């Protein structure tokens, strides 16, 4: 049981606070946000305590930083002395996109830091949170972090050098998957299905297929082959997708996210 702090309880900070609350590991949740109303609403929902940034930095054993990347440095200037004055251990968890461990250590000093990359589906417990750890983080702290976010979906440690490549799939992928669902639904609407049903069926199909692949470990190509009966309709759809270079387009989309310069 630990005291878990969040500075910045917006979309992502709020979603991870909800997951931490469900884990049952947080004996108290400390919630700090620039506009306190957001933290107050969340505190009412989760049973947490609304605090200032400095109080969160003073009391939390695990401190999530949920402000936008360009605001991180300024926010840290306001709590650095509090962190430095602490004699006990504190695990700092940064979700700021693009802020690598080297930058975070330059800002925070050589202390236990996790750089994490969550994605939008964490809000419904179906997310992927990738994390890379500074050398000061112990195995026990990694386990605690994984258990804290277990209700958000998959939590996976990754070598920091691979984080950008992986987040092309996990972070950007929900946009691609949503486009696929929309396109499937458009096809069904063109064939006469009402829009709402078309979108629900497409999204459920995508979720179920993903579940099947994850639970069985089956190769996606093999699953595709099992659905394509000889002379059937599915192979005709596969033929159309191949004609339009569907797989090449998706592969290139992931590479484009990786090659994007900041
Ligand atoms: N959203 C995603 O899908 C996603 C995915 C991966 C990583 N991330 C990372 O998550 C972080 C948050 O993104 P978000 O989408 O959740 O943004 P967001 O909804 O704008 O949340 C940021 C929150 O930080 C608060 N804030 C700003 N300055 C503050 C300060 N000095 N002290 C305390 N709170 C402060 C804001 O308060 P106000 O209400 O006053 O504006 C806001 O509630 C970013 O670093 C982003 O890179 C997000």
Concise overview:
The protein is an alpha/beta fold. It has 13 helices and eight strands.
Describe the model.
The protein is α/β, with parallel strands linked by helices and 262 residues long. Helix content is 55%, strand content 15%. It has 13 helices and 8 strands. Helix 7 links the parallel strand 7 and strand 8 (153-157). The radius of gyration is 21 Å and the shape is elongated. NADP nicotinamide-adenine-dinucleotide phosphate (NAP) is lined by residues 7-13, 32-35, 38, 53, 66-69, 71, 75, 95-97, 117-120, 171.
Which labels suit this protein?
single chain, 8-stranded mixed beta sheet, 262 residues, binds NADP nicotinamide-adenine-dinucleotide phosphate
Task: Reconstruct the topology from this structure.
Blueprint: E1 2-7, H1 11-23, E2 26-32, H2 36-46, E3 49-50, H3 53-59, E4 62-65, H4 69-77, H5 80-85, E5 91-94, H6 101-108, E6 113-117, E7 127-133, H7 139-148, E8 153-157, H8 163-170, H9 173-190, H10 195-216, H11 220-227, H12 234-243, H13 246-259
Parallel strand pairs: 1-2, 1-4, 2-3, 4-5, 5-6, 7-8
Antiparallel strand pairs: 6-7
The structure holds NADP nicotinamide-adenine-dinucleotide phosphate.
């Amino acid at each position: 049981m630990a005291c878990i702090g969040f500075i910045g309880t917006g979309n992502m900070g709020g979603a991870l606070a909800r997951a931490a609350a469900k884990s049952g590991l947080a004996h108290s949740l400390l919630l700090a946000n620039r506009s306190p109303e957001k933290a107050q609403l969340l505190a009412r929902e989760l049973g947490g305590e609304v605090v200032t940034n400095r109080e969160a930095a003073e009391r939390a054993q695990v401190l999530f930083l949920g402000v936008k990347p360009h605001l991180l440095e300024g926010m840290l200037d306001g709590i650095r002395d509090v962190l430095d004055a602490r004699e006990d251990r504190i695990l700092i968890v940064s979700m700021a996109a693009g802020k690598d461990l080297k930058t975070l250590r330059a800002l925070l000093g050589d202390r236990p830091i996790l750089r994490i990359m969550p994605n939008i589906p964490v809000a419904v417990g179906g997310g992927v949170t990738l994390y890379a750890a500074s050398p000061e983080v112990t195995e026990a702290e990694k386990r605690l972090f994984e258990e804290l976010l277990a209700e958000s979906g998959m939590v996976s440690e990754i070598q920091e050098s691979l984080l950008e490549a992986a987040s092309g799939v996990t972070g950007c992928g929900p946009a691609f998957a949503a486009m696929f669902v929309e396109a499937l639904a458009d096809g069904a609407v063109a064939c006469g299905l009402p829009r709402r049903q078309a979108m629900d069926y497409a999204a459920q199909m995508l979720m179920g297929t993903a579940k099947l692949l994850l639970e069985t470990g089956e190769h996606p190509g093999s699953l595709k082959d099992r659905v394509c009966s000889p002379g059937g309709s599915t192979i005709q759809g596969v033929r159309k997708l191949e004609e339009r270079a569907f797989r090449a387009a998706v592969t290139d989309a992931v590479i484009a996210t990786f090659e994007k310069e900041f």
